[in-house]
User: Fold Glucose 1-dehydrogenase from Hymenobacter setariae.
Amino acid sequence: TNGTTLAIADPASQPGLQVFSLAGQVALITGGGTGIGFEIARCMVAAGATVIITGRREAVLQESVAELGEGAHFVVNDVSDLGGTDTLIEQIEAEYGPLDILVNNAGINMKKPALEVTDEDFSRIIHTNLNAVFALTRAAARRMVPRGSGTIIMISSMAAYYGIDRVVAYAASKSAVEGMVKVLASEFSKHGVRVNAIAPGFIETEMSRTAMNSDPDRRDRAMRRTPMGKFGKPADIGHAAVFLASDAARYITGASLPVDGGNSIGF
Ligand code: NDP
Assistant:
């Protein structure tokens, strides 16, 4: 119009795929030795980040770090030990520098009809999937918020979106995490710290294999309500995590991103 070029000037935007780069960033991924967490770690290393994975089994972590190669490190840590969260973050920052990215991926599941779930079962799942996520997030945010930068990603589940039978404690924990994302995003975003969730659909890992094997019909039912008609791969979650952690998602906070082959819309 009028011979002038209509361009939206944005000095902060970077050309090409550089906007997805995590070069120079430090990322902590809980439960990063296996399954989804491992692929998140692999994708973040590929995007240039220094990645620290945690878990309870040293041998698993050692093997995973060897496979991930340069840029990957591990710390043996049980997320359910809530008293150790501030120390874990301090230790990581002392060794690798300020933490830029926290991915709360570690989680446990249990399939039982609700009437058979004991108080102990319920507390165990809630403790690992919810209390531990809050404690570690608070420890990381205590560093990120004053610095004015950082990003936190929760690994949620379809169990937070619609009713899946026999996972009452797991669904309660993931639904609570989704609620927490919104509150933390509203508190932290003005301080430059974004908080988001990824809600994976049916992804092929040890956890989903165990669940499917205990209920042969479940695979068919899951596929019937997944428009893409196939399971996802852990790397599908890894790619989404890189996106959400990167500058490409700099205006996204308080969101829950389904990565589920359409499972959440069902049919
Ligand atoms: P896996 O069982 O393969 O991985 C879970 C990881 O978490 C393991 O590396 C485990 O390591 C770690 N972990 C468990 N408890 C603790 C703990 N107390 N402290 C530290 N680490 C712990 O499962 P997935 O990869 O499938 O699951 C990853 C996340 O994705 C979970 O939050 C899960 O709820 C979610 N998810 C998975 C879906 C799927 O279809 N697979 C679907 C939706 C959500 P270790 O045992 O050595 O401690």
